[in-house]
């Protein structure tokens, strides 16, 4: 059994990790950390875990929280992971950071976008960007994963096959994304209140959302050239789910069937990528509570423009499910272990 602890277990991504790991046949949960619920049973914080998870929450800083763990998940806001991760690596733990601190390879870029100092270059060099469909080989060999952001996951998976094949005109990539309210976390914010969100639809974080440099970094690596994107996230009045509509030009005209075949070949061994047939475009309910990313593709002959609709559950493939997928790879387990979920519908 792999022993796992979670620092920051009482946020939405933390509790989603608990939900997945509590049902994972190869994992034993050894500790759940928190800032606000120290000494409180986890099932009191989240009553749907009653009689399933009987662990008492510990302080995030309590050394006993990670003492027996083989793998530690760090589910904290940006700016809080660096010192914790360094200590964990010195204790020879495998670490999966669900925050933003280790995603960007440049300390200067991180400071510019997040307005705080992050890891230095030496610390960043230890981390692997944890998108399994792109970096699986490196994930197998590392002890530190920078778990991707939810928006970047949709955008990168939508464009990776054609960037790798050098078929895209990279000058004008537009990423138009929508997310459910759970992406804002569990902390009390006016913008997340029911009365503020219900019956409303808005763009936010535009034109400088913090996921922009992460998207550009990974797309540039795939394309082997510098890429800039126009990225606009929106908040929609639903709890969970994320849909990105990605637009880009093609270097020459292809029909939809040809492009879909390229995607099918690129993702043919990927258990969590579903490339849909021509004329079918995914909906958020199709992936609710699962680790799937569904891709719907169209090439408009009239304009020569590619449109890809990319859909995930923002708390699952966009965060905690992807983190467990990374853990499985790091620990030599079946990559799909604990993640074989069918969407809850309707």
Rg over CA atoms, rounded to whole Å, is: 20 Å
Say what the CATH topology of the largest domain is: Dihydrodipicolinate Reductase, domain 2
> Structural class given helices, strands, pairing?
alpha/beta
CATH superfamily of the largest domain: Dihydrodipicolinate Reductase, domain 2
Order of helices and strands: EHEHEEHEHHEHEHEHEHEEHEEEH
**Please, how many domains?**
2
- Based on Cα principal axes, name the global outline: globular
The overall pLDDT average reads: 96
State the end-to-end CA separation. 35 Å
Strand order of the largest sheet: 3-2-1-4-5-7-6
Report the sheet-strand fraction: 15-25%
Instruction: Work out the helix count.
Output: 11
Number of strands: 14
Range of helix content? 25-40%
Given as residue ranges, the uncertain stretches (5+ residues, pLDDT < 50) are: none
Query: What would CATH call the architecture of the largest domain?
Result: 2-Layer Sandwich
CATH class of the largest domain: Alpha Beta
Characterize the largest beta sheet: strand count, sense, and whether it forms a barrel: 7 strands, parallel
Provide structural commentary:
- This protein has 346 residues and is of the alpha/beta class.
- It folds into 2 domains: 2-148 and 317-330, Rossmann fold; 151-314, Dihydrodipicolinate Reductase, domain 2 (2-Layer Sandwich), CATH 3.30.360.10.
- The protein is built from 11 helices and 14 strands.
- The strands form 2 sheets. It has a 7-stranded parallel sheet, sandwiched between helices. Strands 9-10-8-11-14-13-12 form a 7-stranded mixed sheet.
- A hairpin with a 4-residue loop joins strand 13 and strand 14 (305-312).
- Helix 1 packs across helix 11 (316-330), helix 6 packs parallel to helix 11 (316-330) and helix 7 (150-164) runs parallel beside helix 9.
- It is globular and about 60 Å long.
- The mean pLDDT is 96.
């Amino acid at each position: 059994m792999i022993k796992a602890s979670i620092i920051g277990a009482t946020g939405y991504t933390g509790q989603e990790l608990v939900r997945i790991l509590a049902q994972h046949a190869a994992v034993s949960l050894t500790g759940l950390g928190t800032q606000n619920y120290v000494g409180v049973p986890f099932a009191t914080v989240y009553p749907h875990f009653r009689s399933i998870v009987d662990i008492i929450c510990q302080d995030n800083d309590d050394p006993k929280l990670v003492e027996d763990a083989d793998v530690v998940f760090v589910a904290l806001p940006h700016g809080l992971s660096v010192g914790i991760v360094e200590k964990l690596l010195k204790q020879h733990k495998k670490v999966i950071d669900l925050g933003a601190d280790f995603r960007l390879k440049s300390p200067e870029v991180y400071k510019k976008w997040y307005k705080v100092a992050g890891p230095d270059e030496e610390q960043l060099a230890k981390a692997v960007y944890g998108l399994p469909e792109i970096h699986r080989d490196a994930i197998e060999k590392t002890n530190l994963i920078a778990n991707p952001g939810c928006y970047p996951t949709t955008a990168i998976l939508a464009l990776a096959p054609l960037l790798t094949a050098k078929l895209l005109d990279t000058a004008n990539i537009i990423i138009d994304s929508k997310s459910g309210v759970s992406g804002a976390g569990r902390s009390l914010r006016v913008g997340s209140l029911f009365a503020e969100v219900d019956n409303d639809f808005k763009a936010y974080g535009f034109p400088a959302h913090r996921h922009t440099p992460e998207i550009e970094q990974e797309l540039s690596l795939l394309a082997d050239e510098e890429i800039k994107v126009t990225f606009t996230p929106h908040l929609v009045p639903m709890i969970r789910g994320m849909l990105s509509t990605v637009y880009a030009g093609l270097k020459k005209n292809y029909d939809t069937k040809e492009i879909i075949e390229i995607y099918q070949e690129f993702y043919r061994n990927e258990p969590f990528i579903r490339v849909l047939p021509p004329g079918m475009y995914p909906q958020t309910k199709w992936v609710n509570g699962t680790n799937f990313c569904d891709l719907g593709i169209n090439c408009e002959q009239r304009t020569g423009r590619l449109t890809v609709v990319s859909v995930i559950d923002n708390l699952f493939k966009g965060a905690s499910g992807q983190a467990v997928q990374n853990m499985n790879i790091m620990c030599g387990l079946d990559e799909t272990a604990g993640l074989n979920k069918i969407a809850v519908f309707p």
